[in-house]
Design brief:
Blueprint lengths: L2 E8 L5 H7 L1 H7 L5 E9 L4 E8 L2 H17 L5 E7 L2 H6 L5
Antiparallel strand pairs: 1-3, 1-4, 2-3
InterPro entries: Dimeric_a/b-barrel (IPR011008), YdhR (IPR014910)
Protein name: Putative mono-oxygenase ydhR
Amino acid sequence: MAYILQVDFNMEGPFGSEMAESFADLAESINQEEGFIWKIWTEDSEAKEAGGIYLFETKEAAQKYLAMHTERLKGFGIEPVNGNVFEVNEPLTAINSWAG
């Protein structure tokens, strides 16, 4: 069974292409996390919010990443960090999958 990690937080920026350029190394490093499958990066520049939706192989891997990422963001002065882990209902998800 796979698990979704939903994370969001307030952030002053950068957003858009500047965010993509600034966080490219971070994005590459996430690929090395235990149990990581994929991430969708989220942002709302008007509301000054950012975050992501992650897919992990196990609940433990998602929780471990959330704890580490929360501490990393706090180190950047970003608080609070909202994070939730959800089980994926795979049969229903298969009906609605996005092939990209």
